[in-house]
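hiii so um. not sure if this is the right channel but i have a protein structure encoded as tokens and i wanna go backwards to a sequence. like what aa goes where. can anyone help
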């Protein structure tokens, strides 16, 4: 008995003095109370001085313990443990051990649409505003011990193949759009309201570097996949979003991916990490592995024959942080074996601690800092929830609309049949890398708020093994209009789950066709999915009068859908990726990373920039309830590129010239367009500026230079201005990765407008 009492007493004493044991109620902060007098705690000093002071105080074992995501506490210096891994892809997420929700403190956070739908808004202001809201909610959760300060988002890989399960996480297939999204979202997450450029609100991370877009397809797994990429494709497709993220977004972190690129694991490639990210782009932050890329290098890729050699390769390549345990377990042995120097560890932990310094982690209790007053009251605010609804409204794409179909009149419609396996879903709407939302409004709930509805699921789930056709037809035949909510969910497309087919699953096509055949009024087909679907049958079926794509629309998706269906909002979304016929999957190997077509083999190429073949819908497609017209006001017909005396292209014919500084200086022009809303309903419109360059160096057949979102009242006009930098916007990458300006005729496209422009010396 005495021993039992003693054991209980010992446990009580241990719990009493254990730091951070009840973090969410009384979080422990570095440089607080008795530990605030260290030099590294002095926030008036520059970051480098503070970090140097901290690192020199640490033992080798303490340094190694801070090379992994679950970084250990250093009790003698008053530094609590820190979990680096949190996620905020489209809201604060519970994926990753750094973030938790609490029924008593913060039960949920605002869940915005999955990224692919937000990207469809083509609204850079919206991208940044969402980032600002997410980082505010993250800071509020940090203050009460429920979240960290480093969030491994956004995913800025190119959505190259429609089968990729993680395409939903990305901003789409176009490098310009993906770059602009990445920069805006990172700025929204990171930039502080006081304008201090050296400090961070939260730390973002651009991932997965690089050429990562195969998860699990026909026996090919991301852990062992070797992406064979040409220098040209690397520099004009796969790398530009990461380059922009670092140079323009000033992101705090880049995450290297699981896969190999051209035979080398990305997390062990010194050219990709130290050479490009640190050397060329000058990353101010840390490089993290995916979870656990180093273990994958050893066990799946058999890159080296000992764990210690893997450690040496990764640290020498420039890796700073290991999501996982590998560096924690094997670094000391690697140093003892002489495979890597302690100075490499010092460099890595210096980059990690410098990031935490910029985040205020070493500034004591955050209640005295800029975001210290934030708390549970600042999460799921009415304004934040309304922004989630607005983001979904702006992203939803109207793909087909017959005369007299949408918008529906809520007063004329006495009964609405709502049918489909996604008609009354909740979690499906938030896709993957999700968090607990503030609340849900399902499509059925959103529509029922305006009209009387009759609901039939039609299928037990999205797999739709056997459609309940008869019940659905009965409901449809008796209704004034029908909304079919079909599509997929993360059982069909997700991380670790690529698709084989790009048709609607199971008997969904049958259900749609049968329901449409008996309907007496408009039939609205709603596709809820991350990737595109071959719905050519519905596009061609006159009984299917309208088609909407809603992505995975977030917590307020049902309300946003109803706003569009009933005409309270004029749809303005445009597809950020092309939709292909099922035949594409039979002709194109998913593992072929080549962007450009190969006539010799019949390979059709990738994305609207290079693909030569049929599509169901293509990048940029989308309709409105209004009609918008474009008129060219100002654009040059000729651009002369100045060359120095004696340049080789003065004496011999050149098809392109290098984009060198002396050639490119001040080489720019403006394009002015007048955009008119000729309809009777106000709304937003995305103005795209595309270019078709001369057919040299395997140039894209068309590529986007920029986009702008404008809102116009009925009959209103506005002039939209694009600045075109010749060497940046009209250049292309040649076969060996050099950026060139093609000489000859460039065709600029805006809607149906075309304008020819000659570039000459």
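sure thing!! here u go:
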């Amino acid at each position: 008995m005495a021993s039992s009492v003693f054991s209980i007493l010992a446990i009580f004493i241990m719990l009493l003095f254990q730091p951070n044991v009840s973090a969410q109620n009384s979080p422990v902060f570095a440089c607080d109370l008795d530990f605030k007098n260290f030099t590294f705690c002095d926030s008036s000093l520059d970051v480098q001085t503070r970090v140097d002071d901290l690192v020199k105080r640490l033992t080798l074992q303490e340094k190694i313990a801070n090379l992994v995501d679950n970084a250990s506490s250093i009790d003698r210096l008053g530094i609590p443990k820190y979990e680096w891994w949190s996620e905020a892809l489209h809201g604060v997420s519970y994926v990753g051990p750094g973030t938790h929700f609490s029924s008593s403190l913060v039960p949920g956070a605002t869940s915005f649409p999955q990224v692919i739908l937000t990207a469809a808004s083509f609204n850079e202001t919206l991208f940044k505003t969402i980032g600002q809201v997410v980082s505010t909610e993250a800071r509020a959760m940090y203050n009460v011990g429920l979240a960290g300060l480093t969030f491994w988002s956004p995913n800025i890989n190119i959505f190259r193949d429609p089968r990729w399960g993680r395409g939903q996480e990305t901003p789409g297939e176009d490098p310009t759009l993906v770059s602009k999204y990445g920069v805006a979202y990172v700025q929204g997450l990171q930039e502080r309201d006081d304008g201090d450029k050296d400090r961070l609100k939260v730390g973002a991370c651009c991932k997965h570097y690089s050429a990562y877009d195969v998860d699990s397809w026909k026996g090919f797994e991301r852990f062992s996949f070797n992406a064979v990429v040409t220098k040209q494709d690397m520099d004009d497709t796969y790398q530009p979003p990461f380059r922009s993220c670092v140079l323009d977004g000033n992101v705090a972190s880049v995450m290297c991916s699981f896969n190999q690129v051209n035979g080398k694991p990305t997390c062990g490639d010194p050219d990709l990490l130290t050479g490009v990210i640190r050397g060329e782009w000058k990353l101010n932050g840390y490089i993290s592995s995916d979870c656990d890329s180093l273990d994958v290098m050893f066990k799946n890729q058999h890159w080296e024959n000992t764990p210690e050699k893997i450690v040496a390769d990764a640290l020498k390549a420039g890796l700073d942080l290991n999501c996982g345990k590998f560096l924690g377990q094997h670094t000391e042995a690697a140093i003892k074996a002489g495979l890597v120097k302690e100075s490499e560890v010092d460099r890595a932990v210096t980059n990690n601690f410098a990031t935490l310094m910029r985040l205020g982690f070493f500034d004591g209790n955050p209640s005295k800092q800029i975001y210290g007053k934030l708390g549970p009251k600042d999460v799921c605010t009415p304004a934040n929830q309304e922004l989630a609804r607005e983001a979904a409204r702006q992203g939803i794409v109207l793909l087909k609309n017959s005369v007299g179909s949408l918008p529906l009149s809520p007063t004329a419609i006495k009964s609405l049949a709502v049918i489909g396996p996604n008609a009354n879903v909740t979690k499906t709407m938030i896709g993957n890398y999700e968090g607990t939302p503030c609340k849900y409004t399902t499509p059925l709930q959103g529509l029922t708020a305006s009209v009387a509805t009759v609901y039939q699921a039609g299928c037990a789930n999205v797999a739709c093994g056997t459609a309940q056709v008869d019940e659905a037809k009965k409901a449809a035949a008796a209704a004034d209009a029908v909304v079919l909510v079909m599509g997929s969910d993360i059982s069909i497309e997700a991380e670790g789950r690529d698709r084989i087919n790009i048709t609607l699953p199971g008997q969904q096509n049958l259900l749609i066709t049968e329901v449409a055949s008996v309907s007496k009024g408009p039939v609205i087909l709603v596709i809820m999915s991350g990737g595109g679907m071959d719905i050519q049958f519905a596009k061609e079926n006159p009984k299917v009068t309208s088609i909407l794509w809603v992505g995975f629309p977030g917590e307020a998706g049902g309300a946003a859908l109803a706003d569009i269906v009933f005409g309270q909002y004029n749809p303005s979304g445009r597809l950020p990726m092309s939709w292909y016929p099922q035949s594409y999957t039979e002709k194109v190997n998913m593992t072929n990373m080549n962007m450009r077509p190969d006539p010799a083999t019949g390979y059709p190429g990738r994305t609207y920039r290079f693909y030569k073949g049929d599509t169901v819908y293509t990048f940029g497609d989308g309709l409105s309830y209004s009609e918008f017209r474009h008129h060219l006001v100002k654009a040059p017909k000729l651009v002369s590129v100045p060359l120095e005396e004696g340049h080789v292209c003065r004496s011999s014919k050149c098809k392109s010239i290098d984009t060198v500084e002396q050639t490119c200086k001040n080489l720019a022009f403006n394009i002015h367009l007048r955009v008119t809303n000729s309809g009777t309903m106000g709304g937003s419109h995305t103005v795209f500026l595309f270019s078709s360059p001369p057919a040299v160096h395997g140039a894209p057949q068309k590529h986007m230079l920029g986009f702008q979102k404008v809102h116009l009242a009925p009959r209103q006009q506005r002039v939209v201005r694009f600045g075109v930098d010749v060497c940046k916007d009209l250049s292309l990458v040649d076969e060996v990765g050099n950026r060139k300006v093609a000489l000859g005729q460039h065709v600029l496209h805006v809607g149906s407008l075309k304008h020819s422009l000659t570039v000459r010396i």
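oh and Confidence is low (pLDDT under 50) at residues 1-24.
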